Amino acid sequence: MSPTIAILAPGAMGSAVARRLSDHGARVLTSLRGRSEATLKRAADAGMVGAEDDAIAAADIILSIVPPGEAVALAERLAALIVKRDKKPVVVDCNAVNVDTVLRIEEIIGSAQAPFVDAGIIGFPPQRGGKSPAFYMAGEHAKDVTVLRDLGLDVRIVEGPVGAASALKMAYAGINKGLAGLGSAMVLAATKAGAADALRAELALSQPAMLAKLEVALPDMIPKAYRWVAEMREISGFLGPDHPASQIYEGFARWFEHLAEDAKGEGADTELLRAFAAKGGKKG
Amino acid sequence: MSPTIAILAPGAMGSAVARRLSDHGARVLTSLRGRSEATLKRAADAGMVGAEDDAIAAADIILSIVPPGEAVALAERLAALIVKRDKKPVVVDCNAVNVDTVLRIEEIIGSAQAPFVDAGIIGFPPQRGGKSPAFYMAGEHAKDVTVLRDLGLDVRIVEGPVGAASALKMAYAGINKGLAGLGSAMVLAATKAGAADALRAELALSQPAMLAKLEVALPDMIPKAYRWVAEMREISGFLGPDHPASQIYEGFARWFEHLAEDAKGEGADTELLRAFAAKGGKKG
Fold first, then answer.
1. What are the distances in angstroms from CA B52 to CA B41, B57, B86?
2. At residue B232, does pLDDT exceed 90?
3. What does the longest C-alpha to C-alpha distance in chain A come to?
4. For position A106, which CATH number holds?
5. B161 touches chain A (CB under 8 A)
6. Residue A238: is its pLDDT beyond 90?
7. Considering B113, B143, B160, which residue would you say is the last residue of a domain?
8. Which of A122, A170, A213 lies nearest to residue B202, judging by beta carbons?
9. Contact assignment for B181 to A210 by CB distance below 8 Å
10. CB atoms B255 and A239 under 8 Å
11. Which of B140, B160, B180 is the last residue of a domain?
12. Is B206 an 8 Å CB contact of chain A?
C-alpha cells in the first residue's frame, strides 16, 4: 500500500512536491485551517487532501517545507501532536535552515520520540513531467524515507549526521546566491562608472562561463531577492556570529533587501542589471 | 626613437612589465634609492636602469605600479618632480584603486600640468614569451600611450572618463576574488559539517563549471589572500561607505585576513581548502 505523506505547508514548493507524490499514487495530506482561498485552490490542484491535526500526525512521513523563520514553530506544533501517538511518523525537515537550527528541531521532534531526518532541497519545484529537485537527506533515519524515490522524488543520501544535508544546502546556496549578489553589485557599480561594456568584453574574453552564468543569474535573482534576505541571514548563522566570514552574508542580506526594495519601487538598479544581462542575448 | 618609460616601483608586476618593455627596445628607468638587495637584483634582471628623480621626471611615460595604499603618495612625489619641468611626461596610474582615489590622483598630477591616464591591469605579470595582461586605459590621454602596444603590452582603450578603467578593475576583481572568498567560506563550512563530498557531487552534477573554477581559484587564492585584504577594502570604498553592498567587501577583507593568518600559522583551514580542490585532480 502506498504511504500517506503529510506536507506542511502547501506553498509553491510544498504543493509542487505534493503533486509529484500524488501523481505517483501517494495520499498527500495537508493542513488547510485558516488558509486563504488561493492556498485552498493550490492545494486542491496539487491533489492534496485537507486534514485535521490528528490525521496529519498519523501519516507515515511528514515533510516540513516552510520559510526558514517558521521551521522551529512548525516542529513544536508537530511534536505536540505526535507525542500523544503510539505509531510515530518520520519527520523530515526540508527547510533552508542552518545546522544549529536543524539540531534544535531534531531535539524538538526527538522529545516526541519520532524519528527525524535532516533534508535540504536543491533545485526548483518539480513541474509535471519535469525532473525533481534533489532532496539531500542526512541522519540515521534517512534510509527510512527512501520510499519517496518510488514516488518520484530525487532522494540522495548524504553520508553524515543530522545537519550535513542542511550544511550542504547552506553551502550550495551560499555559493550560487552569493555569486548573484556580488555579480549584481559589481555589474551595477561598473555600469554607473561607465565601464559596463568593458567589463562585459573582458569577461567574454577571460571568463566566458562566468559571463554566461551572470546573464542567467542576475535577472533570475531579481524577483527572488526578497526571499533571499532571510536565507542569507541563515547562512550567516550557519557560519556563526564570531566567524570571520559571517559579515559577508550579513552584507548579502542587506544588498538583497536593497534590490528587493528597488524592484518593488522605481526599479532603477534592477533595470540596469536586466540591461547588462540582455546584451548577451542580442549577440545570439 | 624608442620612448623612455619610467616604472615605479620595481615590484613583481612592475619589473615583469619592465622586462617586456626593455625586450621590445624601450629604455626603462626606475628609482632604486634605499631599496633592498633583492629589489636591486630584480630590477637589473628586468633590464631596468636605476635613475635619479630628475631623469625619471624627464621620461616620456611614467607607469605607477604600487600597492593600492601607496598610489596617492607616489602621485604627490611625481607631481613635485614634474611641476618644475617644461616637457611633461604622461603619468599612468595602473593601481588597483577605487574611482574616488584615481580622481584624486588625477587632480594631483593635473596640478603639475601633466597629462594623466587611468589604467587597470587585469591578468598576471607577463612572463618572457608569454602573453601580456590587459592594460585597460581610460581618459582623454589614453590614446597618447598606445605606443606601449608596440612595446609588447596589451593596451585596451575603455571608452569613458578617468575612473572607468579603475572601475572595470574593481568590478572584475570584485567578481573573481569575491567568488574565491565566498567559495572558500562555504567549502570550509561544508567540510566542517561533514558535507564536503556531497557539495562536490552536487556541484559536479548541476554546476560543473563552478566546481572547475573553485578547484583552480581556491589554492591560487591562499598565497595571495594577504594582498587581497587591502584590495577588498578598495572595492568597498569603490561602492562607497553608505552603499548597501559595501559590507560584503568589508566582510571579504576580514575573511582574507583570516585565511592569510591561517596560512602563515597552523594552516588548518587552508589545508582543508587544498584538500577539497585536490579531490578533483584525482579523478582525472
1. 18, 9, 18
2. yes
3. 68
4. 3.40.50.720
5. yes
6. yes
7. B160
8. A122
9. no
10. no
11. B160
12. yes
Higher per-residue confidence, A175 vs B130: A175
Using the predicted structure, report yes or no on whether residue B267 has a pLDDT greater than 60: yes
Do A140 and A193 lie in one domain? The reply is no
Query: CA geometry: angle at A179 spanning A177 and A181, to 5°?
Result: 70
Residues A236, B253: Cα–Cα separation, whole Å: 16
Domain count for chain B = 2
C-alpha cell at A105: 528541531
Q: What is the ipTM of this complex?
A: 0.89
Of A171, A249, A251, the CB nearest to B245: A251
Q: Are A154 and A244 in a shared domain?
A: no
B49 to chain A nearest CA, in Å?
33
B residues 95..154 contacting A (CB < 8 A):
99, 122-123, 134, 136, 138
**Beta-carbon count within 10 A of B89 CB:** 24
* Domain limits for position B201: 167-283
B186/A contact by beta carbon, under 8 A: yes
Picking from B190, B214, B255, the nearest residue to A167 by CB comes out as B190
Could you tell me if B132 and B29 lie in one domain?
yes
The sign one gets for the Cα dihedral B138, B140, B144, B149 is positive
For the record, the C-alpha cell of A120 comes out as 535540504
Using the beta-carbon criterion (under 8 Å), do A134 and B202 form an inter-chain contact?
yes
A54-103 pLDDT tens trace: 999 999 999 999 988 899 999 999 999 999 999 999 999 999 899 999 99
Average pLDDT over every residue of B231-238: 94
Question: pLDDT band for position A283 (50/70/90)?
Answer: very low
A226 in reach of chain B (CB within 8 A): no
Q: What mean pLDDT comes out for the span B171-186?
A: 97
Rounded (10°) angle between helices A164-192 and A196-206: 130
Q: Do A160 and B198 touch (CB under 8 A)?
A: yes
User: Each residue of B4-18: pLDDT tens digit?
Assistant: 999 998 988 999 999
Q: Which residue of B has its CA nearest to A135?
A: B202
